[in-house]
Amino acid sequence: MIETVTPTGARHLTLPGASPGRLRARRQRRLAIILLVAVALLLAAAIAAGLHFQRSSAAAAGEREAVRASAAAAAAAIPELPPPDLYRPLSPEEAQKLNAERPVEAPTATPALPFKLRADEISRLRAIDCLTQAIYYEAASEGVDGGRAVAQVILNRVRHGGYPNSVCGVVYQGSQRVTGCQFTFTCDGSLARTPVAYLWSRSRLIASEALAGRIFAPVGYSTHYHADYVVPYWAASLDKVAVVGRHIFYNFRGSAGSKAAFRQGYAGVEPSVQLPMAEVISDSLDTLDNVTAPSELPAEVKVEEDRVEALAPAPQIKSQDSSPLEADLARGQLILGEATPGATPKPKASAEPTCRSGPVQQVRAVESAVKRVGANGVGC
């Protein structure tokens, strides 16, 4: 080793015969080797990532294909059922007795998975509207649990390969036919009836929470239900799962009713449904200033019993001119404005506008579910 001292006093050790040029060449070679190793490592990482992506893509494609195959198998496994509105010729009392005697085949139903709606704003509002209509017209008189049970059945069908993969598609399936509609309110003229405001608001809250992921575990994966005062011919072909209020819930037997059958993907888009329905929701029974307009309700809202009770109007003394409210037990719906049995209808003032008589189709269809009646509002 040779020690050299620079004019500034710095000392350097060099090998005998080593020149500054050779030292620089050695450093450059070492740097080049390091760079080559780094490039090789980067290439190896890129190749590994590409192979992993290919495997992941293949696995995802295989999973999607398995879901499609499962949905197709579920659709193929659905038994041929009699029309939904074909009932055995029994009196309500006989039907209730027969329904009560039949045991529940699945006393511990498997809870369905949460359904969280992922769609654009228009489809989200359409889904809430369709589900609200089904809950109200099918279970307005059944309380909160009755509404949640109906909502669960509809969302179960959305996931089942044998049904449409959208909320409105399920609710209005077969509604364009005289017979064959899956939910009778879509084809029997019920949509022309004016809903009761606070019950409609409650139904919309239940629909919003169901589409935000809340499940109703007691009915499990049920896809069918009927009132306890009728016995449809199709009921004998399905398993009785639960009883909620006056509704009895059923699921398919075998593979068509298994958890694997409910793997159909959501469409992501809701169809536009143009059917006659009431244009306004009247609050003529009571003052409902505390009811939130459905358009202002949050997407994820929790319906609790005290919240529901707050929506109901305070009891008032019924005057002679008040409009009577009756329960249509044949459909489980609340009807505004029908006369009580034996009562003489009060003649209307001549200044009051009259509505044309005729079929339901004369009621103008509206996309939005609610318009409050104002001071100058007129509704037919």
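Next protein, fold it too.
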Amino acid sequence: MKTKKIVADSMPLALKMVRQQLGDNAIIVNTRAIKTGGMFGFFTKQKFEVTAYSIEKEGASAEPKFSVELKAKSENNNQMSSESSNSVFHKKPQELYNYYSKPTVVTEKPTSPAPQSLEKENPFLDELTSMRKMMMTFMMNEQQGNILPPGLAKCVNSLKKQGVDEEIIEYIVSCMLKRHESMIEMAEDVVEIEIITIVKEIIEKRVPRSNMVNESTRMINVIGPTGVGKTTTIAKLATEQVLKQKRRVAMITTDVYRIAAVEQLKTYAGILNVPLEVVRTKDELEKALTKLAHYDLIYMDTTGRNYKEVKYRESINEFLNHPLESDNYLVLSLTTKFEDLQILLNEFRESPVQKLIFTKFDETTSYGSIINVAYKYPFQLAYITIGQSVPEDITAIDATQLARYLLGKEK
């Protein structure tokens, strides 16, 4: 294995030198801008340093392995390999944007029908796809933000600071590259508007058109881990139905384990003048439902537990297994790391949960988890809560406003 540090006046030139000295199979491990020359920190010149290594043996051919294999199969594919490899390392930075936005096209010989599995078996396509992904990640690296147009680089950094998943950022960048041949001269505000539109489209796919409760719905079940604000959220939702929709509402709680949980819900029930039933078992739930059968809508506050454990998920499912038509909401706190939210959401993929409520929007400045969930999971994004006040501090998700938050345009 050979390792080298290449220093050049520009990043494209450094990449070209890496290829010339270490071959096409060279792997870049680090890049950075450095200052050279000068005296006492003055009159320095910026250069670019690339650290790379090659696993080829001494004297071995620098030609990529996939090119050698393709020579035995097709001279035509070999030419494509040579042209594509050269194009990646010799294009100027502003030309990279257009290159990465183009789909890979494979020209087949008309006299030789290609099997359906050719694309999967062609090592050239696999290598080119891997190379493009590597270069896309490289272009978005914070140390090389200057490779992207200034407006796009600024937006990418904003999304990263908000905790937006790298996969989503790559998708957004690819959308911009497909829409524009060059963004060098695009004004920053124009770039921001377009990215806000893309982010809005991702979120809107998961936001229901309306949060109105159907007349046929008889029960609202609210589920979530300990401390996310389920009880307060139920009070906010119930108040909407009592005061604005003029429905006869009742409440049930199964949360008999948390200190003062029942008393808290009793207080809200007393303010709204609605009945509250406390249940501990499935049999008690059936009796409570019979007792409350003449009410239009019943809200059930479930026990907050560690739902990563199977036994707790199964215990909740017992209470959700009733004959009434219902909506099931999972409550999540935006102060929770997205990695932990993923664990929880993965466990609820096959559950009766259809909708999500994000709480504590006002207690964080990072909102990337919302778009991460919208992109990766099938749940509807119903509400966010923005404070402790009942009933006003709950609202439907506004995709445009949230997109502006993610780009740092709202605070």
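About the second fold: Residues 58-121, 141-146 have pLDDT under 50 and may be disordered.
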